[in-house]
Amino acid sequence: MSTNPQKLIIAKDIPIMLFAGEFQGTLLQGVAAAVLLMPNGRRYTVSQLVSVNHKDEAEYTALIIGLKKANQLRLKTLAIKGDSDRVFNQVNGLTPVTEERLKKLYRVAIKSIRTFEKISLEWISPEQNRPALSAVKRCMKDALGREKKASSLSSQSPLRYPAMLSLIEKGEQATEEDYGKLTEEEDEWTHKSLSELRTLIPLEIRDLIALQWQG
């Protein structure tokens, strides 16, 4: 186990995955995040809100979404690093998984790990895990911001916009003509920038896009 808080995590030869999870009682949910550091200098971050009641569940979820992203990137070799004692002890087979709430997450994590040709797991200090912990904080801040924004926009219901309501109802059956009707009238979103519009997209949708994004 590495305990040097000054060590800088840099992917020199093989991709590195950092992961972290947190449970936020005020939101009654958790946050999971993973950061993939590539040898060519690229960085991929995935994060999402998760319905959990304990920090270790969020940490397991962070490991899982990070592994999914690594699979999406078609990685065969991966060095996994994080500061969760429980996750590393259980995944490395040092301690048994006795909690029912963790057994399913554990099985999913192990199944994902076995899809790689070569993989390593290393415990690191929270200081070394700053990229993943920062991603958790950003996700949490974003969620709180969306909660406030949703409250302020509660009076701006889609019911005010027939074209939008029709699009929601039709779902995958919507046609190009249905989408075209959204541009016929201006609304409060018409003049927003792309960055402003991005904050209105649910985190889970953004993460689905991130998992499919190839950089």
Question: Can you lay out the helices and strands and say which pair or pack?
Answer:
Elements: E1 16-24, E2 29-37, E3 43-50, H1 55-72, E4 77-82, H2 85-91, H3 100-113, E5 118-123, H4 130-152, H5 162-170, H6 176-180, H7 194-198, H8 203-212
Parallel strand pairs: 1-4, 4-5
Antiparallel strand pairs: 1-2, 2-3
Helix pairs in contact: 1-3
Find the count of extended strands (DSSP E, 2+ residues).
5
Number of domains: 2
Number of helices: 8
What is the helix content? 40-55%
Structural class: alpha/beta
| Gyration radius over CA | 20 Å
- Please identify, by name, the CATH architecture of the largest domain: 2-Layer Sandwich
Summarize it.
This protein is an alpha/beta fold and 215 residues long. It folds into 2 domains: 124 residues, Ribonuclease H-like superfamily/Ribonuclease H (Nucleotidyltransferase, domain 5), CATH 3.30.420.10; 56 residues, no CATH class.
Would you give an account of this structure?
The chain is of the alpha/beta class and 215 residues long. The protein has 8 helices and 5 strands. The chain has 2 domains: 16-139, Ribonuclease H-like superfamily/Ribonuclease H (Nucleotidyltransferase, domain 5), CATH 3.30.420; 148-203, no CATH class. The protein has a 5-stranded mixed β-sheet. The longest helix has 23 residues, at 130-152. The model is unreliable at 1-6 (pLDDT under 50).
